[in-house]
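Shall we go through a protein fold together, starting from nothing but its sequence? Label the sequence line and the structure token line clearly, so we can match residues to local backbone shapes. Would you write everything just below, so we can both look at the same thing?
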Amino acid sequence: MNEKIKKLAANLSELIPKSDTPQEVYDFLIPVMQKQSDYFNYLGPDNIVKLIIYIYSYNQGKGFNLGDKMINSLGFANLFTTEGKEFNTTCSSCDGSGEVSCRDCRGGGHVSCEKCDGSGVIPCEECDGEGCEECDGDYTTCPECDGDGEFKCTSCDGDGKEECHDCYGEGEVSSDELVYDFSLIATWNQQIKDSCELNMNTDKPAMSEYDFDRLRDEYIVLYYTYDLHEEFRSEVEINEIYCTFYSDEPTLKLTKPMRIFNDSDDIEPYFYML
């Protein structure tokens, strides 16, 4: 099968611009795979990884010798990192609107006139509306509310709503969950492989984000997703790379956009480690 992949790599190298890294080959190859998804689905993700590396090797003018060495050293790891940002969830008090019913007018926008008790009229002050020799017991328009029986609520200016006191009008509140980014990489770098294997499913970082970026040409990010969130069971350091899975022969699958992901783990990376 490798010979077939090498032949395909030589043919595809004419369609793929010369790339400085296997990552660039992968990024250029994805639109090609999307157009020919039936064929590449048949080819399978394991062979696609080999194809990426063989195209890179061939385009470097080194035939397939470099590619063979890289493939023979391949390891795969699920990684995640966080910047420590708390995940904001919808405020339950206002259902995300940022507003609640005004407490003074109970959402009606108006409050009852206290002088006339909302009736709009007041009884004769002499007889309290009962009638007497000196007065006829008539009711007169309430001078406080001009007969309206109510006033516009000053707390909400008649809107009936006020800012939610739990989320301060934002509609969201912070949670105990942290936002994190997740990736699956294929690497032939021994330092990365050793560190991932040693620290897999522990609360110790596999490496710093600085070292990971420094070794950027030594791996391919096969799958990447961001803004995931979960409550971690132990403390994690920000801007550090954690490994939740490492294997030389994982079970790989293809997504619809023709990105490769690891099917032997749930996409959520912390369930064992933290």
